[in-house]
Amino acid sequence: MIAKTTPQTIVLPFYGYAAVSLCVAMSLLCLSVQAFTGHYFHPHILAVTHSMALGWGTMMILGASYQLMPVITESDLFSETLAYVSFFAAAAGIPLLVYAFYVFDMGIPAQAGAILINVSVACYVINQVGSYTRSRHQNMHGLFMVAAACWLLLTTLVGLLLVFNFSNNVLSKDSLYYLSLHAHMGIAGWFLLMIVGVGTRLIPMFLLSKYESAHLLKIIYWFINASLIAFVILFLGQAPPDWYFVPITGLLTAILQFGYYCRRAYQERIRKTTDTPVKLSLLSIVMTFLPVLLLLSLLAAPGVSSGKLALFKAYGFVIFFGWITTLILGMTFKTLPFIIWNKRRYDAVVSDKKQGPGNLYSHKWFAAMALVYMTGFSVFLTGIFTEQISFLQTGSVLLLIASLLFNLNVAKLFMHQPVHT
């Protein structure tokens, strides 16, 4: 059986939803700058974080992985119906949860949102596992994606318990205590595993590099999973803080190996010129080290102080607004143009070379977006450490402008019409 491309009606809604969610998250950020001068467990910060983690990062990755899993495994998607259900459940659940956090109402809205998100993720996991297990080409990239999906489900299940714990005391301690467990299962288990698995496939492909190493991928895979399992065991066992250096060292080792993999792919590339989206994606790989360094600083910092609270906020900001977002901003304009072009080329005979995937979006808009975004990111991060409202306000406005430029370019792609002959 020849693998077929996932229908656009499955993939594009995820991309569109994620793009709009990015604008929503940046708008919430502009309205919440004052919250970033206080404690990190603030309703508005929680709303912004979940809007970025779920509405932006997760929805974009879900859409991309529905497209990529059949390509990577050379097999059809397990169930198109489950894919549609996963979209609609998440699309309904995420706004409910974000709204609940913003007004800090952990009643019906939060609980309904959390349940819908878990329904969505469960459908996604079944689809990923089903697609992988019945495929003809089970490789490490697909295994990374399956493992990441399973960690995502564990993350959302813990999140569901935390939501109900606010009003029903279903856990032995308060929800703030379990926040670290919930967050790091998602960051390392979902985002890191998925980014490594997909990145080690796409980056060499976009660079036209022949480099690949299944052995190195296995090492990275087991280092990440072993480190994450060790972290969960240490957390549940209430181990002393010093013990956490063990899983952090394991994650740092995996990230170093991931960086080495991408460096080898870059060195052995056939295409010597690198376009801006790939450059931004490569920058995100360098930024992968920043959260680890901040985490080590947090463990080394004694007691609770304003400086340590700033490190907590910077840690989350660098992860969601730096590492994850810079990668997605770059990869979107390497994957989405091809998805649209690949479908439209069957609908028309293209008579113009300018109709190729790389010419379906505005490179000037992309370059402007990248510049404005990285400037806004740097200014806002400075504001977190200095607690200067002027820096936070300026940075948030720049990030909002960048998100609008991103949406304009995505809209341009969505509205593209091929030239008929």
Automatic annotation (TrEMBL):
InterPro entries: Cyt_c_oxase-like_su1_sf. The keyword Coiled coil does not apply. The chain crosses the membrane at residues 12-36, 48-69, 81-102, 108-130, 142-167, 187-207, 219-237, 243-261, 282-302, 314-336, 365-385, 391-410. It comes from Hydrobacter penzbergensis. This is Cytochrome C oxidase subunit I. Keywords: Membrane, Transmembrane, Transmembrane helix. Signal peptide: none annotated. The keyword Protein biosynthesis does not apply.
